[in-house]
Design goal:
rod-shaped, mainly alpha
């Protein structure tokens, strides 16, 4: 992800230089595109950090961790089966 952020920052610098050297519609769109690419790398990075899970159990316990809804004690019953 750091490499993508680096490339987006380089694209922003180059496109900003382009809009200064040759103002126009294409160069302005390049600046907007590189700004949105750089902003999206930070948004995606935050989402990945939020998805992390942490679990602590005692020494005599067994931990079960799943990425979705978990019901314990309803063996054989699935709310989604109809």
């Amino acid at each position: 992800m750091v490499f993508v952020k680096f490339l987006a920052a380089i694209a922003l610098i180059v496109s900003t230089a382009w809009v200064i050297a040759n103002p126009g519609f294409e160069s302005a769109l390049a600046v907007l595109g590189s700004i949105s690419a750089l902003a999206s790398t930070f948004i995606i990075g935050k989402r990945r950090a939020e998805r992390a899970q942490h679990q602590s159990v005692s020494q005599s316990s067994v931990g079960v961790q799943a990425g979705g809804n978990v019901s314990i004690g309803d063996a054989g019953k699935d709310k989604h089966d109809r």
